[in-house]
Amino acid sequence: MAVSDAVRPATTVRGSDTDPAKRPNKFRQAFPQYVAVSPFFILFAIFGAFPVFFSIWLSFHSWDGIGQLKWVGLEQYSYLFTDPTFWKSITNTLIIWVLSTVPMLLLALVIANALHNATRFRSFYRIAYFIPNITSVVAVTMVFGSVFSNNFGLLNAFLTSIGLDKIEWLSQPWGIKVAIATIVAWRWTGYNAIIFLAGLQAISSDIYEAAKVDGASPRQQFWQITVPLLRPVILFTAVTSTIGGLQIFTESQVLFGASGSIGGPGDGGLTIVSYLYDNAFGSNQFGYGAAIGWALFILIVLFSIINWRLIGGSDDERLTKRAARRAQRKIAAERAGKEYADAH
């Protein structure tokens, strides 16, 4: 006999479906994923974040690396601004940066344009230009050290072969700067050329075809189309070159580290990082070395902002400024023409 619905027992509802307290914990479900990615964050906290914050704290202390930390407040920074060797290292770094970065970026842009227009052996040339960037910096510096050697260098041998006098490249402050700048430019020109080449390949060929129809010459196409459209890429290479140029260390260390003077004769190759290394690990003044490091950080940020203001900015701002300059030139030309007509 069938049981009627009126006396049928109520179906038991599981608490996991209706009770919020017994719903699955989302954190427990995602816990294996958190464990899987935790090694990166642990290593970053130990070897990345902690040294940064500790260096800030250390810059306000005097410490030889063994004894107790001694609080000195802003004395490290006040001495930094009056330290003539520190300002000399800044001057040397900026000169080397200008001597290496400006010709490097110009040459890289020319090479990238040539590679973009090349029809044969493109892959070979790309690899050939990129190889210096993956070559050991120490090995490259040792080779260039023999090239710029005072007595038996290849460069002096070439100068004497054409009847010129030898130049003591590694004994004069300016010769040292030229040698270091040459090493930096040789190593990074190909890298920046590949970056520029990627930017050139992103420019539509229709723009160049329209320019050819309008009668634009190759030089006009380069300066009026290629360079403006490559502005974001140029900004990227300028900022990265600035960051790398202000952190030059290995070249001067390899060239002059064994001589007892990390900057070479007359401290001509003394850079900011070299001075930081000499104070922290040579004189065991880790607090002052930390202060130099944060001064370098501020300098990098400052020059990066300058590069962004000179090269970057929004397109609307640049178009507005360009239109204003054109209007000013037009007004000046009309005024000059009016004055000439009144005079005659």
Automatic annotation (TrEMBL):
<feature type="transmembrane region" description="Helical">
    <location>
        <begin position="94"/>
        <end position="115"/>
    </location>
</feature>
<dbReference type="Pfam" id="PF00528">
    <property type="entry name" value="BPD_transp_1"/>
</dbReference>
<dbReference type="InterPro" id="IPR051393">
    <property type="entry name" value="ABC_transporter_permease"/>
</dbReference>
<dbReference type="InterPro" id="IPR035906">
    <property type="entry name" value="MetI-like_sf"/>
</dbReference>
<feature type="transmembrane region" description="Helical">
    <location>
        <begin position="286"/>
        <end position="308"/>
    </location>
</feature>
<feature type="transmembrane region" description="Helical">
    <location>
        <begin position="229"/>
        <end position="249"/>
    </location>
</feature>
<keyword id="KW-1003">Cell membrane</keyword>
<keyword id="KW-0472">Membrane</keyword>
<keyword id="KW-1133">Transmembrane helix</keyword>
<keyword id="KW-0812">Transmembrane</keyword>
<feature type="region of interest" description="Disordered">
    <location>
        <begin position="1"/>
        <end position="23"/>
    </location>
</feature>
<feature type="domain" description="ABC transmembrane type-1">
    <location>
        <begin position="90"/>
        <end position="307"/>
    </location>
</feature>
<comment type="similarity">
    <text>Belongs to the binding-protein-dependent transport system permease family.</text>
</comment>
<feature type="transmembrane region" description="Helical">
    <location>
        <begin position="34"/>
        <end position="60"/>
    </location>
</feature>
<dbReference type="InterPro" id="IPR000515">
    <property type="entry name" value="MetI-like"/>
</dbReference>
<dbReference type="GO" id="GO:0055085">
    <property type="term" value="P:transmembrane transport"/>
</dbReference>
<dbReference type="GO" id="GO:0005886">
    <property type="term" value="C:plasma membrane"/>
</dbReference>
<feature type="transmembrane region" description="Helical">
    <location>
        <begin position="188"/>
        <end position="208"/>
    </location>
</feature>
<feature type="transmembrane region" description="Helical">
    <location>
        <begin position="127"/>
        <end position="148"/>
    </location>
</feature>
<keyword id="KW-0813">Transport</keyword>
<protein>
    <submittedName>
        <fullName>Carbohydrate ABC transporter membrane protein 1 (CUT1 family)</fullName>
    </submittedName>
</protein>
